[in-house]
Design brief:
The chain has 159 residues and is α+β, with helices and mostly antiparallel strands. It is built from one helix and eight strands, in the order H-E-E-E-E-E-E-E-E. It folds into two domains: 43 residues; 91 residues, OB fold (Dihydrolipoamide Acetyltransferase, E2P) (Beta Barrel). Strand 1 and strand 2 form a beta hairpin.
Length: 159
């Protein structure tokens, strides 16, 4: 064999060895990561402020100042929304009665456009059933199903 062929063969061999080494490292890392996740799931945490379960890994908040959901009805100045929350490590659906007052701010965000630049202040009568909203509060609403909104953000995907 000539010198050029030897160099090409050496380069191909080196590339193959490095590629196999990287592949083996990735496989070993993936396996170790998977085992670590399973190990963490089996080590259940239970304190006064949070809980994690083996089956679903949901962590309960110590305090909660917002709730997202879909409007199910509006009666006078109360907006009812259905949303999800975590209770005793389980994700559950809950219906919330969101009280509004003269200080409540209503904003609309069009997600089809740039949502950080197109928010506009609206009125409660622009909200309707099946709208997606996020309610912001000044009070800790953990374990509450009725609370007063500081702000309600309406999210739409088209005009």
């Amino acid at each position: 064999m000539d010198m050029k062929t030897n160099r090409n063969l050496l380069a191909i061999t080196a590339t193959a060895i490095v590629s196999l080494g990287l592949l083996a490292s990735w496989v070993i890392g993936f396996e170790l990561g998977t085992k670590k996740i399973a190990q963490n799931a089996n080590n259940s945490v239970n304190t006064n402020t949070q809980s994690t379960t083996v089956d679903n890994l949901y962590v309960e908040e110590e305090e909660k100042y917002s709730q997202s959901g879909v409007i199910t009805q509006i009666e006078d100045s109360t907006v009812f929304i259905k949303g999800q929350t975590i209770k005793q490590g389980e994700l559950v659906e809950e219906t919330y009665a969101v009280l509004t007052d003269a200080n409540t701010i209503f904003k609309k965000f069009n997600l089809a456009d740039n949502p950080t630049k197109n928010n506009e202040v609206i009125k409660i009568d622009e909200l309707k059933k099946d709208d997606n909203v996020t309610v912001l509060t000044e009070e800790n609403i953990k374990d509450k199903t009725q609370f007063t909104a500081k702000q309600i953000n309406l999210y739409i995907t088209n005009n």
